[in-house]
Structure formats: C-alpha cells, structure tokens
Amino acid sequence: MAQDYNFFDNVYDVVRQVPAGRVTSYGAIAAYLGAKRSSRVVGYAMQVAGTANPPVPAHRVVNRQGLLTGKFHFGGNTMQQLLENEGVQVEENQVQNFKEIFWDPAIELAL
DNA sequence: GAGGTGACGACCC
DNA sequence: TGGGTCGCCACCT
C-alpha cells in the first residue's frame, strides 16, 4: 500500500538520474540495486518506461556492449536521434566512446 | 489461476 | 576460449 516501491520503480529512479550526454547499462542499474542477475527486469522496465510517469529517459540505457538494443522498441531511429541530440555519438546502433560516457550509478551515486 | 515471454547479464561446462 | 543455460521480476495471454 502507500507506495509499493518495487524493483521496477527503483529502476526508474536510477535512470531518471542519468544526466544528458551520458549512458548507462541495464546490468549497471541492476547491480546498483543489488540484483545484477535481474538485468532482464531492467530491460522490461524500459519497455514500460514509455508509459511511466514521469517518462524515463530509456534512450540513455543501453546494453553492456553499448548497443541500442531497445532502439527498435522506440520506433525507428528515435533512440539514436535522442542520444545524438544530447551529444552522444552513435554508430551502427552502437554508442561510441561508450566507456567514456558510461554513467555508472554504483559510482556516480556512490555516497 | 497458471504459464510463457522479455530492451540482459553472469555463470557453468 | 566459446557456446549454452539459468536467473530474475513484472506484464500479457
């Protein structure tokens, strides 16, 4: 009741903290939540992220390889356009300099 | 009500 | 070193 803060909602909270021009991975979020094996759930969360309120910048979330796996779910090249609009270089559906712009919640949100 | 699927990732053989 | 399988939580049929 009150607020069923599930793993799902927790994912949204982390993704919303991802700054523009930076990207993160499903596993990084899952690992930050203490469930790196639940990376799949993170991906599913991104699917419903479009229906979440407030909307979650799912376009900043890519897989471990930096590939825009969810690009097709956005509908066309929307995901790539959004990333490039933020200054992220995308080539062949893959984020360039991925390790450089990689935003790790386990580190950035480390307190 | 139960089973299967899914934007992934890690572990096992 | 590489391929295959399991796991995890939520949503859909």
TrEMBL record:
<dbReference type="InterPro" id="IPR036388">
    <property type="entry name" value="WH-like_DNA-bd_sf"/>
</dbReference>
<dbReference type="InterPro" id="IPR052520">
    <property type="entry name" value="ATL_DNA_repair"/>
</dbReference>
<feature type="domain" description="Methylated-DNA-[protein]-cysteine S-methyltransferase DNA binding">
    <location>
        <begin position="6"/>
        <end position="88"/>
    </location>
</feature>
<dbReference type="Pfam" id="PF01035">
    <property type="entry name" value="DNA_binding_1"/>
</dbReference>
<dbReference type="GO" id="GO:0003824">
    <property type="term" value="F:catalytic activity"/>
</dbReference>
<dbReference type="InterPro" id="IPR014048">
    <property type="entry name" value="MethylDNA_cys_MeTrfase_DNA-bd"/>
</dbReference>
<protein>
    <submittedName>
        <fullName>MGMT family protein</fullName>
    </submittedName>
</protein>
<dbReference type="GO" id="GO:0006281">
    <property type="term" value="P:DNA repair"/>
</dbReference>
<dbReference type="InterPro" id="IPR036217">
    <property type="entry name" value="MethylDNA_cys_MeTrfase_DNAb"/>
</dbReference>
<keyword id="KW-0227">DNA damage</keyword>
